[in-house]
Specification:
Blueprint (H helix, E strand, L loop, with lengths): L17 H8 L3 E4 L5 H10 L8 H13 L4 H4 L1 H11 L2 E4 L14 H19 L4 E4 L6 H14 L5 E3 L12 H14 L4 E2 L13 H22 L6 H11 L3 H7 L3 H10 L16 H9 L8
Parallel strand pairs: 1-2, 2-3, 3-4, 4-5
Helix pairs in contact: 1-5, 2-6, 8-9, 10-11, 11-12
Keywords: 4Fe-4S, Iron, Iron-sulfur, Lyase, Metal-binding, S-adenosyl-L-methionine, Zinc
InterPro entries: ThiC/Bza_core_dom (IPR038521), ThiC/BzaA/B (IPR002817)
EC number: 4.1.99.17
Length: 303
């Protein structure tokens, strides 16, 4: 629609040649909603999801199929697309048009039916020497996350799984970077390969620079926590250094270990303690300070 500046209903299957144009421009990967088909139209109407389809690209493909009566060209001409991607060494990100947009739709028939098709498309891509990653769900309750990861790994034969959060509750607009980080940590711990960061503006507005910063930091925290849980070699090294710096009340050492030293330092500077070896929370009642002095045989001055 954007490239050709035409209304959706006027596009035809031949317009998928835009994939070639992107490849010629040098893109590394393209997100394509190849797994949604005319069968999906029947599934959506039959199962009456609470949020229907929340994928922007997926909703447009769905609408195009409804208006034209034709099959999804990204599915129908998938082999031709694979030839383009092989020629230009472009990776396909298989978009999940039927990802759940709320907890009520998580792990339902529409999501899993499309996932099975994405597994088939993954195999076809590999047979043509095209790399693939598979997009995963967006809103999933915590008790279903591990199962979602396992099902994807099985159906898609270990292809890298790219998850959109997942968000673990629907009631936190303005804080969805937190709901996504919770789900992202659990997903990554259970096999997700790639976390899509979510900003505080999710569901509300186009994110600004600060929103993006907050979203990326939250996602990095989730990924790091998952790496520690998975036992990735040296993942915890920086945490151990932070522990050493905190025990020594070495503030500069703590900034060096912090994922966002600028914010950490600004908070301390805004509420400066009376004594440099404490913080304004506990002052001389600081447990770390008291233990250091006790273990070294020093007098512990409190007042």
């Amino acid at each position: 629609v954007i490239h050709y500046q035409r209304d959706l209903a006027t596009l035809s299957a031949k317009d998928i040649d835009v994939v070639r144009l992107h490849a010629q421009d040098g893109v590394d990967f393209v997100t394509l909603h190849c797994g949604i088909t005319r069968k999906t139209i029947d599934q959506i109407r039959k199962h009456k999801r609470k949020m229907n389809i929340v994928s922007r690209g997926g909703s447009l493909v769905f609408a195009w199929m409804c208006m034209t009566g034709e099959e999804n060209p990204f599915y129908e001409y998938y082999d031709e697309i694979l030839d383009i991607c092989r020629e230009y060494d472009v990776t396909i990100s298989l978009g999940d048009a039927c990802r759940p947009g709320c907890l009520a739709d998580a792990t339902d028939v529409c999501q899993i039916e499309e996932l099975v098709r994405l597994g088939e498309l993954t195999k076809r891509a590999w047979e043509k020497d095209v790399q693939v990653m598979v997009e995963g769900p967006g809103h999933v309750p915590m008790d279903q996350i591990a199962a979602n990861m396992k099902v994807q790994q099985t159906i898609c034969m270990g292809a890298p799984f790219y998850v959109l959060g997942p968000l673990v509750t629907d009631i936190a607009p303005g804080y969805d970077h937190i709901t996504a980080a919770i789900g992202g940590a659990m997903a990554a711990m259970n096999g997700a390969a790639f976390l899509c960061y979510v900003t505080p503006a999710e569901h509300l507005a186009l994110p600004n620079v600060d929103d993006v910063k907050q979203g990326i930091i939250a996602s990095k925290i989730a990924a790091h926590a998952a790496d520690i849980a998975k036992g990735v070699p040296h993942a915890r090294d920086i945490d151990d250094k932070m522990g050493d710096a905190r025990r020594a009340l070495d503030w500069e050492g703590q900034w060096a270990c912090a994922i966002d030293p600028e914010t950490a330092k600004a908070i301390r500077d805004d509420r400066s303690p009376e004594h440099d070896d404490t913080c304004s929370m506990c002052g001389k009642f600081c447990a770390v300070r008291s233990m250091n002095k006790a273990l070294s045989g020093e007098y512990i001055d409190i007042l």
